[in-house]
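From the methods appendix. Each design record in this collection lists the tokenized structure first, followed by the designed amino acid sequence. Records were kept in a plain field format so they could be parsed without special tools. The example shown here is representative of the layout used throughout.

RECORD:
FOLD TOKENS (486 positions):
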């Protein structure tokens, strides 16, 4: 060994992992429109900070930087926001001041990668090209098949007419009540329910030019689980059931708008989901993908069989609940293992014992509040981020300004993370904010609880806005655009 060189220590225990991140001197930055996806991770990691577009905490969060605005912007995607931030002189100065380090993002593209390289930042995620390849619902199905994981009965192909679609379905014995997906996009906007020629005609402009995944329509409970593919196997977070399509929360039929994370029930299905995620993570690792991914699944409510849904190869909307449970109840945020994969650290732990640490936890839920009305308004008053409490009449009040949703003390309280504030515009489908609370927001038979409805209504009542029209009104993104901010 050369003089002055010391061998890097292999991390072989959680104590080693904790010490490594506590003593970390390499800047790690989460750059995204909001801090939502991994809010709280900075408590565990030295030199961890956030750079955001939206000022959710009015400058009070000690680890969040929000650059000053310079005029209106019409972003169409998270990538647009992130690339704007990386071109912003204040952000560039901040990153150069911090020095070479790692970037975490929810979404990025090749332009983001080039901007990061200019600033001496390594993106601690698989390359955009690989992520896009895996993100395809067609590729997901094939990878699942290779890993021995079944998808709902399906076939894949192209159809230029309703007749051709039915021919595809008949060859695979899928029946005539179909769910049809295009390869890319948010499931609430690129999933189509077709059982008549009229259903086809409504969407034929999109469907006729895409490769399609055609599935038999089944009665199902949708859910998701986040996992981290590593060199030593795949760690799987808690199973979450999806909250989708409720008109009180989202204007998109079938659109994702939250999650329940709970213990009790579905024991066989939980084990099946965990095994599926581990198999899928191991297969992804062989394909060159490492780190966090989100696996959507379907539980057939008639047969109780579990099917693979799709893969979200990224930090995702499920990340907040995963981070909350694994850090609070397991004492070990699963994202630590994601970072270990990208930071050139030698480590070797028994992942089965780590996995067991978050087997038991309290029930939690989150709701993603989208503006449900088809009009454009300028917000003049918006609720602050923090912990709100509801009284017996369904009215709410801010009881504690907080940067940590775990401090919610009971089901009469909820943490609200603000996205849009006074001076911003709200429009049909805009992401207004996030609610996180103890307990469940959805019943076992997929109904929104009265408590959830009361909270959504109460938050919306906290907003005040004035209508805008003509040349002063911004143009909302197309409904099938990926304009969500998380």
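DESIGN:
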């Amino acid at each position: 060994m050369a003089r002055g060189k010391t061998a890097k220590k292999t991390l072989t225990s959680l104590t080693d992992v904790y010490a490594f991140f506590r003593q970390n001197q390499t800047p790690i930055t989460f750059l995204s429109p909001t801090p939502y996806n991994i809010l709280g991770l900075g408590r565990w990691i030295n030199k961890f900070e956030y750079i955001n577009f939206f000022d959710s905490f009015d400058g009070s969060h000690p680890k969040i930087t929000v650059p000053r605005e310079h005029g209106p912007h019409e972003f169409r995607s998270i990538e647009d926001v992130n690339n704007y931030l990386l071109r912003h002189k204040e952000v560039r100065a901040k990153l150069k001041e911090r020095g070479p380090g790692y970037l975490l993002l929810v979404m990025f593209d090749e332009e983001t990668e080039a901007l990061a390289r200019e600033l001496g930042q390594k993106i601690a995620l698989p390359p955009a090209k690989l992520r896009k390849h895996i993100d395809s619902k067609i590729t997901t199905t094939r990878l699942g098949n290779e890993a021995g994981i079944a998808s709902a009965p399906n076939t894949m192909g192209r159809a230029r007419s309703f007749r051709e679609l039915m021919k595809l379905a008949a060859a695979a014995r899928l029946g005539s009540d179909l769910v049809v997906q295009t390869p890319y996009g948010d499931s609430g906007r690129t999933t189509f329910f077709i059982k008549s020629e009229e259903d086809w005609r409504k969407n034929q402009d999109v469907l006729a030019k895409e490769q399609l995944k055609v599935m038999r329509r089944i009665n199902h409970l949708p859910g998701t689980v986040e996992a981290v593919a590593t060199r030593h196997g795949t760690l799987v977070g808690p199973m979450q059931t999806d909250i989708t399509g409720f008109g009180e929360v989202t204007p998109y039929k079938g659109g994702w708008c939250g999650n329940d994370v709970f213990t009790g029930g579905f024991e066989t299905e939980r084990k099946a989901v965990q095994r599926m995620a581990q198999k899928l993570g191991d297969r992804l690792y062989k394909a060159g993908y490492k780190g966090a991914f989100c696996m959507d699944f379907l539980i057939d409510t008639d047969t109780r069989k579990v099917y693979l849904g799709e893969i979200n190869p990224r930090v995702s909307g499920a990340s907040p609940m995963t981070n909350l449970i694994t850090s609070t109840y397991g004492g070990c945020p699963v994202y630590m293992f994601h970072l270990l994969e990208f930071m050139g650290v030698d480590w070797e732990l028994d992942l089965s014992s780590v996995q067991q640490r978050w087997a038991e936890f309290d029930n939690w839920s989150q709701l993603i509040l989208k503006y449900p009305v088809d009009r454009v308004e300028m917000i003049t008053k918006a609720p602050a981020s923090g912990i709100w409490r509801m009284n017996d009449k369904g009215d709410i009040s801010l009881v504690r300004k907080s940067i940590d949703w775990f401090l919610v003390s009971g089901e009469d309280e909820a943490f609200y993370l603000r996205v849009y504030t006074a001076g911003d515009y709200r429009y049909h489908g805009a992401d207004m904010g996030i609610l996180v609370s103890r307990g469940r927001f959805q019943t076992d038979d997929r109904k929104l609880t009265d408590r959830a409805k009361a909270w959504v209504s109460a938050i919306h009542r906290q907003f005040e806005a004035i209508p805008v029209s003509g040349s002063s009104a911004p143009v909302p993104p197309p409904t099938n655009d990926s304009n969500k901010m998380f």
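APPENDIX NOTE: Confidence is low (pLDDT under 50) at residues 1-6.
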